[in-house]
Amino acid sequence: MTGGTELPTRERPAPAPTTETTAPRADAPAPTTGTAVADGPTAAPSPALPEPALDEIRLEAVLHALADPVRLRIVGELAAGHSEMSCIAFGLPVTKSTSTHHFRVLREAGVIRQHRRGTSRMSALRREDLAALFPGLLDSVLAAVGRQPAGPPPA
Amino acid sequence: MTGGTELPTRERPAPAPTTETTAPRADAPAPTTGTAVADGPTAAPSPALPEPALDEIRLEAVLHALADPVRLRIVGELAAGHSEMSCIAFGLPVTKSTSTHHFRVLREAGVIRQHRRGTSRMSALRREDLAALFPGLLDSVLAAVGRQPAGPPPA
DNA sequence: GTCGAACTACGAAAGTCGTCGTACGATGGC
DNA sequence: GCCATCGTACGACGACTTTCGTAGTTCGAC
């Protein structure tokens, strides 16, 4: 079963590279240009957190980001009429550390954008961007989330 | 950041339980009823491989199954006008062992169905089932696969 | 009967992922 | 200035995923 064109091997949906305003994690992708960070002439960190540009968003990374119940919940609530929400507003059943991890996965995949507001981090869906890149994908996922029962299938 | 309703924890998109006709893998989910296995009165294994029933297919498992470049390639080729294909026909750039692993992930998530034909394993998309469960999802993914460049984003 | 081919179970190795606790920084209120 | 709150970096842990090689099963051709 060998031959054919090479596929990307093993680099399981690498999150899109983002532009960093702080020291990146060791495993964070290298920063790139074209980020949507809005900066003044000051050197102070921007309130917007680094996010991938439109052409850096990959289907595998988006699907991987959505293939988790916690992240599906976050995306569902962001879609339910809220233009933006702070992390604490979600009432997630995991610790703050884990929540921060999930928000970062969503942001680095290009599913959400975040900016600071005081001590809070406001998150919003990149609805138009995802609709432009993968028409109908987010709507299908949100429709499915709205009616799928929570939790694993019955024993 | 605690509170709110419990989400399924950690059970990372558990593949839907399937009905087995052979000894399951140690980590395979327990067999369930309602499988689409077509059997005669004989005890011989059925040519159809076990697959989850419609109500056992979970969004997270489907998204997880699709969040991999090898499996996206398989699904893309199955969608490209082929009603069914044998495993060897895909020319995947991984070994037979790994290919078998990927086909099993797709089948257990409910994305494809498989049956034996001689020494071959014929695979087909569960197009109507997925359209019924998650309208527009598969079409969006296939449309995106058709135009997304292969491989990781440029350095 | 043997043989070749397709396919898989099993186990191992390496890497990834989700979880958490701890310690810290940034912000706003006082 | 201190304090409370929000959020995060870091590291650790356990489980999961992807990869492959090996040995085996099943099927069809001869």
Written account of the structure:
- 2 copies of one chain form a homodimer.
- Chain A has helices at 59-66, 69-79, 96-109, 127-133, 137-147; strands at 85-86, 112-117, 120-125.
- Chain A has a domain at 54-146: Arc Repressor Mutant, subunit A (Orthogonal Bundle).
- Chain A is globular, with a radius of gyration of 17 Å.
- Chain A has a 3-stranded antiparallel beta sheet.
- In chain A, helix 1 packs antiparallel against helix 3.
- In chain A, a hairpin with a 2-residue loop joins strand 2 (112-117) and strand 3.
- In chain A, 38% of the residues are buried.
- The longest helix of chain A is centred in the middle third of the chain and has 14 residues, at 96-109.
- With 155 residues, chain A is an alpha+beta fold.
- Chain A has 5 helices and 3 strands, in the order H-H-E-H-E-E-H-H.
- Chains A and B meet through helix 1, helix 2 and helix 5 of A and helix 1, helix 2 and helix 5 of B.
- Chain A binds a DNA duplex (30 and 30 nucleotides) through helix 3.
Concise account of the structure shown:
Chains A, B: Residues 1-51 are annotated as: Disordered. The structure is a homodimer of 155-residue chains. Chain A is built from five helices and three strands.
* Count of helical stretches of chain A: 5
User: What kind of sheet is the major sheet of chain A?
Assistant: 3 strands, antiparallel
| Topology-level CATH name of the domain at 54-146 in chain A | Arc Repressor Mutant, subunit A
CATH level 1 name of the domain at 54-146 in chain A: Mainly Alpha
Compressed to H and E, one letter per element, the order of chain A equals HHEHEEHH
Strand share of the residues of chain A? 5-15%
Decide which structural class fits the backbone of chain A: alpha+beta
